[in-house]
Amino acid sequence: MSAEQRPRRRWHIAVFLAPAVLVYTALMILPLFGTLKLSLYEAVDNRQVFVGFDNFATLFGDPNWSESFWRALKNNTWFFFIHMAVQNPIGIAIAAMLSVPALRFKAFYRTAIFIPTILSFVIVGFAWKLILSPLWGIAPGLLDMVGLRHLFQPWLGKEEYALTTIALISVWQFVGIPMMLIYAALLSIPDEILEAGEIDGITGMAAFWKIKLPLILPSIGIISILTFVGNFNAFDLVYTIEGAMAAPNFSTEVMGTFLFRTFFGHQTQPGDPNMGATIAMMMFLIILAGVTIYLFFIQTRMRRYQF
Amino acid sequence: MQRVKHNWLNLTLAHTALIAYTIIALFPVVVILVNSFKTRKAIFREPLALPNSETFSLVGYETVLKQGDYFGYFQNSLIVTVGSLFFILLFGAMAAFALSEYRFRGNTLMGLYLAIGIMIPIRLGTVAILQFMVAAGLVNTLTALILVYTASGLPLSVFILSEFMRQVSADLKDAGRIDGLSEYRIFFQLVLPLVRPALATVAVFNMIPIWNDLWFPLILAPGEDTKTLTLGSQVFIGQFVTDWNAVLSGLSLAILPVMILYVIFSKQLIRGITSGAVK
Fold first, then answer.
1. For B130-184, how does the pLDDT look when each residue is reduced to its tens digit (9 = 90+)?
2. I need a surface site. Which of A87, A183, B143, B277 has the fewest CB within 10 A?
3. Which candidate from A23, A27, A118 shows the least CB-CB separation from B129?
4. Residues 137-166, chain B, touching A (beta carbon < 8 A)
5. Does B255 sit within 8 Å of A27, measured CB to CB?
6. Rounded to whole angstroms, what are the CA distances from A100 to A12, A104, A206, B125?
7. Which residues share a beta bridge with B38?
């Protein structure tokens, strides 16, 4: 190690670190603290006055605010649940099929199935809005072909379906990520282990459930936490499809749209940076709680297999 | 013999399922692209048919290119994406080199400090970031976006690059030192060329989220001159809700650049993900 020679002044270390640390501190860390500070202040006559946790008390105590907050949190939890229940199992299933050694056209499937993931929310949102639109008639037409036309509903416009529909669109968009990560994990399982299983008579589906699945659990953990952070931070898709008011009647409200509307205001209410910051802090705490649970309770309990 | 038969059945099932899902994944994109080349009547009459000589029309594209400044939006997106990637790679590699090469007090702590941003989304600081940009006079500039994306891309970049830099042979660097190369030249001339594959991986990971982001362009740079393609198409399509030709063409024009990027970089992207860079 060159460092042992201890050159007298090692300014170059500071030079190497400075740009990254400066940009990162100024635009990532300080704004987080800035947001925390804003959440503890209130604007009175255009001046910021320290009010302690009053904004949080308002958020949870004032029925107008607390109703919106709990609605956004509840919707966001449902949004996350759909991803965990639909996106990740589909991703794992596709990855498992792709990892069959004899399968051909793997590269084609992988590339094609990943395409929705590279599209922006704007493209995805509008594309599905058009396809599900009763005006255009693609969705009812397709249902008609299989004789299920009566099942068609304007899903994005009905309060009881809109959130689930948006969650499923988001699942469609992001299936590529669990697929890729699980595929990579499955490829890294050495053949000897699978062959040893084969000798013991464990093949096919049994090999997947008894050998492969336990070995890819750490990757499933990573996918879950990535999904969690992504979902509780979601905004773009709802905004593109349903607008900042999370139509119909706020039924697609998630934390992100609640933050955006509070911060920037909307027709009936002017923007409020302090309450916006308060909501951002709650999102921070939710995400921090999720990450902490993952790092300290899930990741440490999972056995890591080194090959 | 039975084994072979069993395998064949399994493979057929796998192909059926994969083809079915591939159709689900591609169907919406194909429908949008195909219909953008049709007349309004044909779009509604037979949405699933390919355009023929009778139904072919470019009227949507004409409206879009006349009304929206798509080239301007595209240029803005390109500047923001390339600029952000440049700084993410340069600053990230420099910091990664410092952390992986030198032992100094606070090294581990610095590594952890920079890693916080891997899990905490930069969006949560938006309220304060906007105030900062207003104070710095950077609202409605592309610089604001480049700064924000650089900050949000750095943590993962430092993390991945320092893993790779640890594998660069110490002998090589020491040989350079004996030859009297400065630490800066060792970094730029010896180490950086050797970690090129890792730089490409980091670039590809960051490229698509930056290109596609809607949140920060909407908040920091919504002005007409600084709209990115993502924001520009969002606003444009929103205005033309009833002009289906224009909406479909606008969408297709937004899809095109990402698809080109994907075709060029998909190998790198897939190799990056599957080589375990994010494990």
1. 999 999 999 999 999 999 999 999 999 999 899 889 888 899 999 999 999 999 9
2. B143
3. A27
4. 147-148, 150-152, 154-155, 158
5. no
6. 50, 9, 14, 44
7. B56
